[in-house]
From TrEMBL:
It catalyses: uridine(38/39/40) in tRNA = pseudouridine(38/39/40) in tRNA. Signal peptide: none annotated. InterPro entries: PsdUridine_synth_cat_dom_sf, PsdUridine_synth_TruA, PsdUridine_synth_TruA_a/b_dom, PsdUridine_synth_TruA_C, TruA/RsuA/RluB/E/F_N. The keyword Lyase applies. The gene is truA. NCBIfam families: hisT_truA. This is tRNA pseudouridine synthase A. One of its GO terms (biological process) is tRNA pseudouridine synthesis.
């Protein structure tokens, strides 16, 4: 057994374009896999290996601006040194932005109390080759005011059975959405949707986005979302927006109670 002498929380970003998701999969390049290799190299390849525990999984092609993970090292190391060591060992499509020593009762997944996701919709008539990996393309005109009105029906505690993809194995589909917004970004010819909630189900955000896009085109009524929620039937929501437009923006931890010292940002400054 590794002697657990220090636990570290890292906040990191990644370009999901060339990853098969966050979670380790056989014969696939994943974010967890490259992080685990880097952490164990720094830990001098102990046995058993150090496990990297993320706040949750993201699917293939999905990006993150503020994913969170924790791991235990068999020795203590200064946060700034660990930050530099990790970024020196990681591929260029992953960046550790912050390192924080935390107490052993901190858990990246189970201590989290909210997550924020962003979805970017490109509105060009044709697919922009420089955006194809970072937005979901939707060329049809959208009534943003209708989308803004409709998205408020997601706010609150609901059973999201109609908004979870097959393959989910969680016991409860009840989740709480704290906020939902739809904002046009005219400088980029994009529509930006954001959702903050207690947690999200498999493909939930992408299915929510797809329904809002249908409302924006008039294919659905502006008051359809309560009916879809009440129906508890995945077929009512129909399709799923592409993974390329989705970003995990941040993971929240209540009052940051588990931190044991100040954190270090990517420039080596105390936060």
């Amino acid at each position: 057994m590794i002697k657990k002498t220090a636990r570290y929380k890292i906040t990191f970003a990644y370009d999901g374009s060339n990853f098969a998701g966050m979670q380790v999969q056989p014969h696939q390049r994943t974010v967890e896999q490259v992080l685990t290799v880097a952490v164990n190299r720094i830990a001098k390849k102990p046995q058993p290996p150090v496990a990297v525990i993320a706040s949750g999984r993201t699917d293939a092609k999905v990006h993150a601006l503020g994913q969170v993970a924790h791991f235990d090292l068999p020795f203590e190391i200064e946060p700034v040194a660990l930050l530099k060591a990790l970024n020196s060992s990681l591929p260029l499509d992953v960046l550790v932005k912050k390192v924080e020593p935390v107490s052993f009762d901190f858990h990246a997944r189970f201590s989290a109390h909210n997550k924020r996701y962003r979805y970017r919709v490109s509105q060009g008539e044709f697919v922009n080759p420089f955006k194809r990996d970072y937005t979901g393309h939707f060329k049809y005109p959208l009534d943003v005011a209708k989308m803004q009105l409709a998205c408020q029906d997601f706010v609150g505690e609901h059973d999201f059975t109609s908004f979870v993809a097959s393959g989910s194995n969680v016991k409860s589909h009840v989740r709480t959405i704290y906020s939902a917004t739809v904002v046009p970004d005219n400088t980029q010819n994009e529509i930006v949707l954001e959702f903050s909630g207690s947690g999200f189900l498999y493909n939930q955000v992408r299915i929510m986005v797809a329904v809002l896009l249908e409302i924006g085109t008039g294919q659905r009524a502006v008051d359809d979302i309560p009916k879809i929620l009440a129906g508890k039937d995945r077929q009512l929501a129909r399709w799923t927006a592409p993974a390329s437009g989705l970003y995990l923006v941040s993971v929240g931890y209540e009052n940051n109670l588990h931190n044991t010292t100040k954190s270090i940002d990517e420039k080596g400054n105390l936060k």
